[in-house]
Amino acid sequence: MDDGTIVDTANAVNSWAEDTSWDGHNRLSEIAGVQWIHRTLYENSEGRYYLESVSRWQGSPSTKWVSHKDAASWLLANAYAIPEELAQVDDKVSE
């Protein structure tokens, strides 16, 4: 993480994989529109959200903290329901 925190995705209390599609040759990220980058959103035990990006090209994952608003936006963009703890920001990210 950019603040020096080390996260273990096995300890996450929730996780949501991105929405993908198959183009006949590759699994594509619906948001990124490419086959090379795939993302998973995680919630830790303290209620913080972080996004893990895995590059199929470079192979090493990167993670970053995301705000509740960004987490809610990501969930909606990937066709997930908004968890109760993010309900207060749902009005700001959806119509």
Summarize the structure.
The protein is of the alpha+beta class and 95 residues long. The chain has two helices and six strands.
Identify the notable features of this structure and list them briefly.
95 residues; 2 helices; four-stranded antiparallel sheet; alpha+beta; two-stranded antiparallel ribbon; 6 strands
Can you offer a commentary on this structure?
With 95 residues, this protein is an alpha+beta fold. It has one domain (9-93). 18% of the residues lie in helices and 32% in strands. It is built from two helices and six strands; from the N terminus they run ββββββαα. It has helices at 68-77, 87-93, and strands at 14-17, 20-22, 27-29, 37-43, 49-55, 61-66. The strands form two sheets. Strands 1-4-5-6 form a four-stranded antiparallel β-sheet. It has a two-stranded antiparallel sheet with strand order 2-3. Helix 1 packs across helix 2 (87-93). The protein is globular, with a radius of gyration of 14 Å. The N and C termini lie far apart (32 Å).
Total number of distinct structural domains: 1
> What's the pLDDT, averaged over the residues?
84
Number of E strands: 6
What's the gyration radius in Å? Answer: 14 Å
By DSSP (H or I, 4+ residues per run), the number of helices equals 2
Q: Which range does the strand content fall in?
A: 25-35%
* Strand order across the largest sheet: 1-4-5-6
Roughly how many Å apart are the termini? 32 Å
Low-confidence stretches: none
Order of helices and strands: EEEEEEHH
Q: Which outline best applies?
A: globular
Structural class: alpha+beta
Characterize the biggest β-sheet: 4 strands, antiparallel
**Helix content range:** 10-25%
